[in-house]
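Quick one, T. Sequence first:
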Amino acid sequence: MPDTSASRHNEQFPAAGNPQGVQQTVTPRQWLRRPQALMFAVFALMLLVSWRRWTSPIADSGRELDLPLRLLGGEMLYRDVHHIYPPFAPYFNALLYRLFGAHLETLLVGGVICSGIIVYLCWRLARRLLPETEAALAAATVTVLCVFKPAGNLISPYSFAALYSTVMALGAVLAMLRYAETLRRGELIVAGVLTGLAAVTKQEFALAAALTIAATLLLMHRREFGTLVMRLSVAAAFSVLIALPVYGWLLWRVGWQTLIEDCHLLYTHLPPSLVFYNRQRTGMDHPFSSLLQMTGGLIVSVAAAGGIVLLSALSLLRAQRREAAVRTGTELRFLILRSGLVLGLALAGTFVIRALSEGRWDGSPLRALPVALVCLIIPVWRRSRRAHIIPTSPTDRALFIIAVYSLAVLARVALRVPSGGAFGGFFLPTSLVLIVYLTTRSLPRAIEDWTRNQKLAARVRMFGRTTLAALMIMTIGVFAVRYRRTFDVLISAPRGTLYTNHTSGPALKEALEFIEQHTAPGEAIAVLPEGSDLAFLSGRRMPLRHQIMIPGFMSEQEERAAIERLQQASVRYVFIVNRPMREFGQEAFGRDFDQTLGAWISGQYHLVRVCGRAADALTQPPEIGDPAFFIKVCARND
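Structure tokens:
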């Protein structure tokens, strides 16, 4: 049945794209005045201030840069090179290398394009909930806090698999929003295909997309069981048609033991180090503290709402005093007292919880997102149960679909939602859209329902929008300064040019200069426990199957196999990087884990340089875990 209420929604928030089908000619000057120009301006500005400062060498970046090149050279994923993610991203990046050259810039351009797509998709999602100005503000917020956050940007992400699967999952969400508007099966097919692609890229994003598809169909067809099952089967079939042949081919070529038990592709047979890491990420290592931080996030959110209402009421009171509106002024003074009291109590509660969390909480309100999302989903579901034909309004349906995806994609970090870092940019985009919606739509509506004062509600909307814009502008300034002051060491290498931070930059630059002077292009070098981007950038190669020495990932037999590879490749130089693995429960390679390989290297190689340290470091060599960054250069005993 056609959605007769969709037209009313389009009249309220006309989607970008002119759904009425009227041809409109927009001049460049007119377009620059439209809110969409804000998205492009913010993206371009952040791209400029962060130029070539996106790559953080050593941690994860070596795997992302070097692995596709090894596949391009004929090695087989999983069998010849250990990998814990599905195959799409490394093989796709290998294709990019083949087409455009094996350079750092090749992947960076891909990162810029994918990041732009993510921002555009968030704009399209936001337009289902918000008018153009606020949707542009939401997209700009995603740009700043997700795409360009210095501690974990999306241009050069910790995992291109996460970047690509975010694009696919957001595309599936948009397809389901369009399905909820039109009930066309074609949108289901698109969502199913994108979910299948996400399943061979990074599974948790495929799961979030699949849950969103199922929840949307349940919302739309729960009274039509046959239609529900049929349409769910359509989406599932197209997902399976993509994912099943890929995994079947891998099982045939690589084998169950390598794929499932050794590379943990189905999250099975996980070593204790990975279990330890995942407990930290989910917040299950300290569940009471995680729940306390979640409570703190809720209190910060209440404080922010109280502050916006307080400022709005004070502003309106001043305006009405000039108009001598005595009665309304009395009501506003009462509201000012209540909102001030709420703000004061919330701030006091924030300080108490921060003290109790013992430094584990940074004060971020994002910790409360799971609770907020559940509180968005449940009322929409309840309202839909009272609908007879079309479940709820278009805005409600969009709110439900976006909130379900936002909650599903946060499942892995539900008790400890990050405010940034390597993961936040992938998990937070749709939640940030909803935060803008809550600030500029839900909060003013709640105030209007409570006070019956439309002028106050308008002020709350204005102050909410202004607060978000001011925070975004301040964040842009902070990030710009951080990019320029922190990433100030220029590294020029055969396969790429970048600026890196002054903490690790000098040692990296010195190590690359040593490699250039003492090794030949294409020669095998070993970088341990992580940092194969040294091999990639210098035009050398890594011979080891494990590019990252995570504690517990190699058995003693695999360590001996690594020794054989080093011998067969006649590796003359081994580079030991100060990369502690504390997040995996152990610290130093060769001392706390992989002792067999570490002992063999100590016996067969001798220290010739410590990059990033003075010459006297050779007499008192530092150990992994020291505060200052260094790279040991060990030469083979001849």
